[in-house]
Each structure stands twice: as structure tokens, then as C-alpha cells.
Design goal:
Blueprint (H helix, E strand, L loop, with lengths): L1 H15 L8 E11 L1 E6 L5 E6 L4 E10 L3 E7 L16 E4 L8 E8 L6 E12 L3 E8 L10 E8 L2 E2 L3 E6 L2 E3 L7 E4 L8 E6 L9 E7 L9 E6 L5 E7 L5 E3 L5 E11 L3 E6 L9 E3 L2 E4 L8 E8 L6 E9 L1 E10 L15 E10 L4 E7 L2 E3 L5 E5 L8 E6 L8 E9 L7 E7 L13 E6 L7 E4 L4 E4 L1 E5 L4 E5 L13 E3 L3 E4 L8 E7 L4 E2 L5 E15 L2 E5 L6 E11 L5 E6 L2 E7 L6 E6 L8 E9 L2 E10 L5 E3 L7 E5 L2 E10 L10 E8 L6 E6 L10 E9 L4 E8 L8 E5 L11 E4 L10 E2 L8 E4 L24 E5 L10 E5 L19 E9 L6 E8 L10 E4 L7 E7 L5 E8 L8 E10 L16 H20 L1
Parallel strand pairs: 3-8, 19-25, 26-42, 35-43, 44-50
Antiparallel strand pairs: 1-4, 2-3, 4-6, 5-7, 7-8, 8-11, 9-10, 10-15, 12-13, 12-16, 14-15, 16-17, 18-20, 20-23, 21-24, 22-23, 24-25, 26-27, 27-31, 28-29, 28-32, 30-31, 32-33, 34-37, 36-40, 38-39, 38-41, 41-43, 43-45, 45-48, 46-47, 46-49, 49-50, 51-53, 52-53, 53-56, 54-55, 54-57, 57-58, 59-69, ...
Helix pairs in contact: 1-2
């Protein structure tokens, strides 16, 4: 007997199922598609390929399950290298790309994660189809002489079109289709190296009939509805490659601000060539104007100088190209330097020694550059003691030198170097070098002093705080005073302005908003320009940037219930100076604890032994050194965490009245034990688009467990409005964090169909439609509005609930209807739920049910059909009944097993007379096999429950037999 009880207990467990501890679940994901796909291959074991035409709309939706609600992210790979998928990932359920481009094809991944288990990832490959217009190019060849009298002239017509999938080509001459072998003078072949992307028509030894119009037709076999594209080329005895001529000089030298016009004309070519202009600067200037073969550049600048090319193309032979160079005159960057006697190893300038003054400018064009020298404003000519030379352009371009041999007192004065261009129109550059002195030494001139560099006392090392403005200083002396060049001395690193070297005329380097990365050594160095051309002088300045301690956490929220301990830790990551002086803990602005920082530790800690109401608030820990303070902030609160809405509720939306609907709202509580017990939830609801919230409290009796699913039914929601729902937990502390979700009404046709009900109470009749290929229509009707001239002895007197105001559908069989006329009512499409990501393991089962009324002596036939997607004709009915069934409503149920999206078709057939009205009402469609089918309908198979109880009875009898 004990064995029987044990077996029955196991059976009860099997029938009842196993209860879960909470509803938290890792994510699952499935990709569904809409938009303008022209084909989707659902391969069971390899991959899914979504084919779309270029320019159409791509729309992929990621359907996820899991709790908490998974976060969805779309990413892409395997596309164009330069295509970064809009430069970021897309965090959205639906990926929408309008007017998709060819480089946006590739593999798209949908990743869902909610912190439980591994992320769920599915992918689909998007193949973008396109076909560009084909282009014909023509190439001619003339063979060598054969036996001194015969020349072979061969023409190649090459057809190219970019496409996906690969293109197929066909050639026509006039109306004649050309194929390989159809004409001995024609060969058609696809070069191996082009892998079928081109097709070449070879015309051997041109004949008179070869001069004709040739058509190349490119085709991708009408995939995605892409039509064939074609191009025509007329081959004549005048067909020739292009030739052009530029009506301008080369080079063209102009002054800034002038308008330049470049004229290009064609001198040959059939068909007439097309002229375009290109520039060595990647693109033509923005203000340029192209009209025919003329390019106009108004008010030209130095940046617009370069090579400009005219290109002529007519797809015969190679394009013709002619170029010219535009040179814009310019003078810039004048500078000088003084070189002591190069024959003596001395940096000083002495009486009787040689001195060289050098002057340099940058000139365009360099060959037009001229120099002249003045002394005290008067022209200076080259002589034995004053030698004027111009340096070899290959060694030092744009440089002139004035050598003063055997320096004398009479050489005092101002020397001016004047640079100009021969063509004029450009302002001259003048550089003055002043040689004068009030003190004359018989052997040494004090007015020319070699440079020297020193760092002022107390300026190195220079200590500053992060964010300050600092000035690094080198004192420079010498006549003339040289330019100072600043650079990093300790490492190869850019200066604060981003360059490797900075110039200073007063020896000061000014840095605004100095940062810790700028700590290091800086070199100041004399430049040879605008100074002595001697060995550079240099010095080094040390910069030390102090900054406050960097600490963590910068901000942390601590949630805790009353009476519990709280520990807060502030950690120092780095600081300069690294010796931290002190710390202080504050609640709001009230000092709690302060002291010296332990040099052997990198953190400080504050503990609340038992949290009370006064302990809630913002705690601050300041860690302080000489440069300032680093701050850790802790927000100690008793706020409850937000609830987590449950999005996987089975059939959450229901309809029990015509104009309203209900919604089963379910949620769990995030970390319910982190704070005090939740005593209630504040529920807020408002219609989307309106401002007013309606609120109510939902009391909570017991302590909420982690993962415990809570339910609250929302009723009286108005069709078809959407609602915003806000849920806020309440504890002794007060309100916690809220969570908001949107509830959207949808007709009971879901991507995963579970339950559908239609009572025809609304004029939309649940999206049912009348078949356009039948003989007449079904009529929506109620007994309260029945015509007084209705046919007696047939049809219902109320809807199936007995209401005179209720509606139903029926077929009116009065004249002009005749026997055999058919009326068909077609349901909307229902999408079946897939068992896995690739397809069905077993066909899904649904129970289709409805109420019918078939009363009258002329009743014909009522049929129910299952019509699956892609099915052109109706197969045998899944349910059928004929003849008078009495003046009452009866229910029919039948199990159906669709393998793809499907519709239900209800067909009424008129009988032999007018007393043959057939009515239907309360259509239902539920997931699963039919249970308890009506007595008048035979079930095709035993229900699941029948199998279980049969198994139970068999086991019990077997065990009893064993006991005997």
C-alpha cells in the first residue's frame, strides 16, 4: 500500500509541475524581421540571411525574454571596413535603417544581457542587392603588317556593371542577339582575372556590318525586383579616343587676388568627349566655377596654387589629360643672423675681423626673388670690403649675405636687407640690423655681444598647483637679442600648444591651466635666427605641479535599513606631494571625525554602528594635502530600490467588455532585503499624452522575498489608448525609487499567439475581412435592430449570451441569393510561436472554437478551413456541418496544427430556400490542444489530461495486481 501512495505522489508532482524559487531568468533572444525584405532564408543549422534591395527600409526586431528586463544592443561586423554602424551601438529593441546602402550590408548581432548567466546573442546576415547602370568602354588595336599588305584592326567592347548578386551580361548588335559562335567575326569572353565582373565583346578585323549600335544588357535575374539595365554604344568608322588642348601657358604665375581662367577645348574624339577639371589639392576650390571646358578661379589665394588638369573622356581608349601649374606670388618669413669671423674660433666680434650679416626670406616663385642692401637708407653696392653674395638655392634657398671685411668704426650704422619679386605686385620685405655703440673698445665692440642664458634665482625648480598659470623664465642677454626656443628636456613630448617647440621673444614660457602631466624639465635654447650664428646656448628649468589627492569612490550610494551598521571607506589613489596631511568626515556640514592620515595606509574609514533616522544623509570625507582636498561622498539612505517590471507575463492583456480592456501588471522587487520592509507600493497611471496622474496605494502584508512575483490587475483601460504606469515602493524611510513602463493596447493577435476572442461587438469585427472571391458577404447583426421584414422560422433571436443588444455574424439567404452561393469570412493572420530559433521541432497546436446557430428547414452547410501562409487554395475543411440543428446556439471546437502563419476561414453555403440563415458568434483561438470538446464534435485525439489519467489508472491497476 505504501508503494501505491508513493507512486500516486510522484504522479501528482508530474501533473502539478515543480514550483520555481522566484522568476529571475537569464535572457533569451530571437530576431524577427519586417521592413522591405525580398527574401529571408531560414536555414536550420547554419545562418539566417536577410536579403534587401538598396534604398529600401531595413527593420529587425529583437524579441527577448528574461527577468530583470534584458538590455538590448545591436552591433554590426563584416561590412565595409570604413562603415562603423553609425559610429556606435544601437540600444533599442528595433533596428531601423531607412534607405539602406550597399556598404551597410553585413552581419548584425542582437545581444541581450540582464546580469544573469551569459548574454544571449543572435545574428542575421543582411545582404543588400543592387545593380548599377552598365558602362561600355572601347579599345582599338592595329596589328603588325602581315606579308606587307594586310593589317588587322580589332576592337574590344568592355561592359562593366557593379552589382550584388553577380551580374550576367548579354550583347546585342541592333536587334541581333550575339552569342559565342553565332558570328565568326565576333568573340565573347570573360577574362579570368576579373572573375566575371566584366564581359568583353571582341570584333576581329572590322567589317562594314560591324559598324552598328551595340547594346550591353546587365541582369541579376530580377532578384528583389531589380530590373535589367542596359547601355548602347554606336560604333562607326569615326569612333576615336579623345584629344584636347589647353589654351593657357604653363606655368601660370599670378598675384594673389587675381582671377584666373583656364580654357580647355577638345580637338578630337567620337563620341564627343566630356570635359572635367581636377586639382592636385584633392578637390577644386570652393569658389571655383566650371562652365564647359573653362575653369575660373576668382580672387585666387596662395592655398589654391597647384596643378590643375583637364580630363577628357568618351569611353574610347584612355582618357586624355592636360595639366598646367598655377603659381601664386608670395614673400614671407623674413629673418636674419650675424656670424662672427668664421676663420677664428671666437664668439666675439673684434676690430679688424670679418663679420657676416645673413638675410633669408621664403619666396614664390624663387627664381623671381631679388635682394638689395642699404646702409643708413642709402643703396649699398658690393665692394672689396663690403661683399654682397647670394647663397646657392640648393644649400640655403632665398638667402643673401653681406660680408664686412676688416671691420672698422666707420661701419657703424643701420643695415637694411630688402627682398622683392621681379614681377611686382607683392609688398617688399625689409629687415633692419642696427650696428651702433656709445662705448668703443679698441679691440672689442660692445654693441655686438654674444648671447648668454641663465635661469633667475628661485625660478627652478618652480612649484605650482594644478590649474594655475605659470611662467618659466630664462634670462637672455646679447646684442642682438636672439629668439628663445622652448622644448621638453626630459622626454620626447609635445609642448602645451601641441607642437614640439615653442618660440619666445622675451625668454618667458607662459602655461595656462597647468596640469600634472606637465611636470618635468624644460629646455630654453637660443636660435641662430635674429641673433648670433654661434653654438646655441641653453638652460633647463624644472617644473613641479602639485595636485590634490585623487580618491575613490567619488560618489557612492549606500542603502541600509534602520538599526543596521554602515561602513564607509575613502581610498587615496595618488597625490603630489604624496604626503597627505589630514582627513575629516562630515555629515552635511557637521564635523564628525578628523585626524592625521596614517602614512602606512592609503585609506580612512568611518563606521555607523546602528543607523538611526538622524544618520541618513550625505557623508563627506575630505583628504587634504598642500595642494588641496580630494572628496569622497557617500549618500546614506533608506530608500528602497526600484521594482523590476516583469515583461514575460503569460497573456497579460484581456478583454471582457467592448470598449475597455484589462492588463495583468507583474513585478519583482530589486534587493528587497537591503532596506527596511516594504509596506506598500504607490501605483500611478496616466494616459499617454495627458498630464494628470491617478494614484492609489497597494498594501503589502508580508515580507517580500527576492524574486517573488507580485501581481496587480489594471482594469477599465480605454481601447485603444496606451498608458504610462509608475510604481514606487514605500518603507519607513518614505518613497523609494520609481520604475515606469508603457502599456500598449493591441488587438489579441500576438507574435506568440496564446488566446484570441471575438464577439463581433465592434464594427471592426476583430479585423476579420470579407473574401473578395465569394458570392456574397456575411452581415453583422443584433436582434434589437432586426428588420421587421425578416424571414421567420430561421436565424437567432439573440446573440449566443441571450442578449438582444449583442451582435453576431450571419448569412442572409433571402433573394437574390440562390442555392450553392458561398459567403466566406477571413480572420487576420496569426503568427505561430517557434519552438527554437531556426524553426519548429513539432507543429504548434491551437484550439479553434466558435458558437453556431443553424435553424431552418433550408439550412445549407457551415465549413471552417485552415489557410496557411503561401497557400493559394483552400484544402479540406477542418470542421463541417450541414442541415437544421435547432433553434439554439451550439459550440464547436477543433484542434489545428499549423506550421506557419495562418488564417481561419468560415464559409456559409446557402441551402435550397430562404429559411436557411446561418449565424456564428464568440470565436476563440487558444494555444494548446482542445480540452473537453463538445459532444457533437468528435475529437481526433485524446487530450493531454486524458493521457495522464489513463497512465495513472494503468499504473494503479498494475501495482494492485503485483500486491496479489
Amino acid at each position: 500500500m505504501d508503494l501505491i501512495i508513493t507512486v500516486l505522489g510522484l504522479l501528482a508532482l508530474m501533473v502539478g509541475g515543480i514550483s520555481c524559487q522566484g522568476v529571475y531568468a537569464p535572457p533569451t533572444v530571437r530576431i524577427i524581421h519586417s521592413g522591405h525584405a525580398c527574401n529571408v532564408e531560414e536555414e536550420r543549422h547554419t545562418e539566417r540571411v536577410y536579403t534587401i534591395r538598396e534604398g529600401e527600409t531595413l527593420e529587425l526586431t529583437c524579441l527577448v525574454t528574461g527577468h530583470p528586463r534584458p538590455q538590448i544592443r545591436w552591433t554590426k561586423t563584416a561590412g565595409s571596413v570604413s562603415d562603423r554602424f553609425q559610429d556606435s551601438s544601437v540600444f533599442n529593441d528595433t533596428l531601423h535603417i531607412a534607405k539602406i546602402l550597399r556598404n551597410q550590408g553585413g552581419r548584425y548581432y542582437c545581444k541581450a544581457e540582464n546580469g544573469l548567466g551569459s548574454p544571449a546573442i543572435k545574428s542575421i546576415r543582411v545582404d543588400v542587392y543592387y545593380l548599377d547602370n552598365p558602362v561600355i568602354t572601347v579599345h582599338q588595336s592595329i596589328g603588325e603588317a602581315k606579308e606587307q599588305f594586310y593589317y588587322e584592326r580589332t576592337v574590344f567592347l568592355r561592359c562593366v556593371a557593379n552589382s550584388n548578386p553577380p551580374v550576367r551580361y548579354s550583347w546585342h548588335r541592333g536587334r541581333e542577339v550575339l552569342t559565342q559562335g553565332s558570328d565568326k567575326g565576333v568573340e565573347i569572353y570573360e577574362p579570368f582575372f576579373t572573375q566575371g565582373e566584366t564581359k568583353i565583346l571582341k570584333l576581329k578585323n572590322l567589317r562594314p556590318q560591324d559598324y552598328a549600335n551595340y547594346s550591353c544588357i546587365a541582369s541579376v535575374r530580377n532578384v528583389c525586383g531589380i530590373p535589367d539595365r542596359s547601355v548602347i554604344f554606336g560604333l562607326t568608322n569615326k569612333t576615336a579616343s579623345p584629344s584636347i588642348k589647353l589654351l593657357v601657358e604653363d606655368p601660370i604665375v599670378v598675384n594673389p587676388g587675381q582671377t584666373v581662367s583656364l580654357v580647355c577645348i577638345t580637338t578630337g574624339g567620337e563620341p564627343t568627349p566630356t570635359l572635367t577639371w581636377v586639382s592636385s589639392n584633392d578637390s577644386l576650390p570652393q569658389r571655383s566655377v566650371v562652365k564647359g571646358g573653362t575653369l575660373t578661379l576668382p580672387a585666387i589665394t596662395s592655398d589654391e596654387a597647384g596643378v590643375y588638369s583637364c580630363v577628357a573622356s568618351n569611353n574610347v581608349g584612355n582618357p586624355a589629360k592636360k595639366s598646367t601649374t598655377i603659381v601664386v606670388r608670395a614673400l614671407k618669413k623674413g629673418r636674419f643672423w650675424i656670424t662672427p669671423d668664421p676663420y677664428h674660433n671666437d664668439d666675439n666680434i673684434q676690430i679688424g675681423r670679418e663679420v657676416k650679416i645673413s638675410c633669408q626670406v621664403e619666396a614664390t616663385p624663387p627664381e623671381e626673388l631679388t635682394f638689395s642692401w642699404l646702409k643708413n637708407g642709402r643703396s649699398l653696392r658690393s665692394s672689396e670690403r663690403m661683399v654682397i653674395t647670394q647663397t646657392d638655392p640648393d644649400i640655403s634657398p632665398g638667402t643673401t649675405n653681406l660680408d664686412i671685411i676688416d671691420l672698422k668704426f666707420t661701419d657703424f650704422g643701420t643695415y637694411t636687407c630688402v627682398a622683392a619679386l621681379k614681377g611686382g605686385g607683392i609688398p617688399e620685405i625689409s629687415i633692419d640690423v642696427n650696428i651702433s655703440s656709445t662705448t668703443v673698445h679698441p679691440l672689442f665692440f660692445s654693441f655686438l655681444v654674444p648671447p648668454s642664458l641663465t635661469v633667475p634665482r628661485g625660478k627652478s625648480p618652480l612649484v605650482a598647483r594644478e590649474g594655475d598659470t605659470v611662467e618659466l623664465e630664462c634670462l637672455v642677454s646679447g646684442k642682438p637679442k636672439p629668439i628663445i626656443l622652448w622644448s621638453r628636456a626630459d622626454k620626447e613630448a609635445p609642448m602645451p600648444d601641441g607642437s614640439m617647440q615653442m618660440e619666445s621673444y622675451d625668454g618667458v614660457l607662459r602655461i595656462v591651466n597647468v596640469s600634472r602631466e606637465m611636470t618635468g624639465s624644460y629646455r630654453c635654447q637660443t636660435s641662430q635666427y635674429n641673433g648670433f650664428n654661434v653654438k646655441p646656448r641653453e638652460a633647463v628649468v624644472e617644473l613641479i605641479v602639485q595636485y590634490p589627492p585623487t580618491v575613490e569612490p567619488v560618489h557612492m550610494e549606500v542603502r541600509q535599513g534602520l538599526g543596521r551598521p554602515v561602513v564607509m571607506t575613502c581610498r587615496v589613489l595618488r597625490a603630489h606631494p604624496s604626503r597627505v596631511l589630514r582627513f575629516e568626515w562630515l555629515l552635511s556640514n557637521r564635523l564628525l571625525h578628523a585626524g592625521a592620515f596614517d602614512p602606512h595606509k592609503d585609506e580612512t574609514e568611518y563606521t555607523i554602528r546602528s543607523l538611526n533616522r538622524e544618520g541618513w544623509g550625505e557623508y563627506t570625507c575630505n583628504v587634504i594635502n598642500e595642494a588641496g582636498a580630494g572628496k569622497c561622498t557617500f549618500q546614506v539612505t533608506g530608500k528602497a530600490y526600484p521594482p523590476e517590471f516583469y515583461y514575460d507575463t503569460y497573456s497579460p492583456l484581456w478583454q471582457n467588455r467592448p470598449r475597455v480592456y484589462g492588463f495583468k501588471l507583474q513585478w519583482t522587487q530589486m534587493n528587497p532585503g537591503a532596506v527596511d520592509r516594504i509596506v506598500a507600493y504607490r501605483l500611478g497611471i496616466r494616459q499617454v499624452g495627458l498630464q494628470r496622474w491617478w494614484e492609489q496605494e497597494i498594501p503589502v502584508g508580508d515580507t517580500i522575498g527576492k524574486g517573488e512575483l507580485m501581481t496587480h490587475n489594471l482594469t477599465e483601460l480605454i481601447k485603444p489608448e496606451s498608458y504610462e504606469v509608475r510604481l514606487t515602493p514605500i518603507t519607513r524611510f518614505g518613497e523609494g525609487d520609481s520604475t515606469i513602463r508603457i502599456i500598449t493596447y493591441s488587438a489579441p493577435i500576438n507574435p506568440h499567439l496564446r488566446e484570441f476572442h471575438c464577439s463581433f461587438e465592434e464594427e471592426a469585427i476583430c479585423m476579420f475581412t470579407q473574401d473578395k472571391n465569394d458570392d456574397f458577404d456575411w452581415t453583422r447583426h443584433s436582434a434589437a435592430t432586426r428588420d421587421t421584414k425578416y424571414t421567420p422560422n430561421t436565424g437567432p433571436s439573440a446573440d449566443r449570451t441571450g442578449s438582444k443588444q449583442g451582435f453576431y455574424m450571419y448569412i442572409e439567404t433571402s433573394r437574390p441569393r440562390k442555392e450553392g452561393d458561398q459567403a466566406r469570412l477571413v480572420s487576420p493572420f496569426f503568427n505561430i510561436a517557434l519552438k527554437n530559433s531556426y524553426g519548429l521541432t513539432n507543429p504548434s497546436a491551437y484550439c479553434f472554437g466558435f458558437f453556431y446557430h443553424m435553424y431552418g428547414k433550408h439550412i445549407g452547410t457551415l465549413n471552417a478551413f485552415l489557410k496557411q501562409k503561401g497557400q493559394m487554395t483552400l484544402e479540406a475543411p477542418v470542421w463541417s456541418l450541414s442541415g437544421n440543428q435547432g433553434d439554439r446556439w451550439k459550440q464547436a471546437k477543433v484542434s489545428i496544427h499549423p506550421t506557419s502563419s495562418f488564417q481561419i476561414v468560415l464559409e456559409g453555403i446557402r441551402g435550397p430556400g430562404i429559411e436557411g440563415d446561418i449565424a456564428i458568434d464568440d470565436i476563440t483561438l487558444e494555444e494548446g490542444e482542445c480540452r473537453d470538446p463538445p459532444p457533437n464534435i468528435s475529437a481526433n485525439a485524446l487530450s493531454t489530461s486524458s493521457h495522464i489519467w489513463l497512465l495513472c489508472t494503468t499504473l494503479v491497476l498494475t501495482l494492485l495486481e503485483g500486491q496479489r
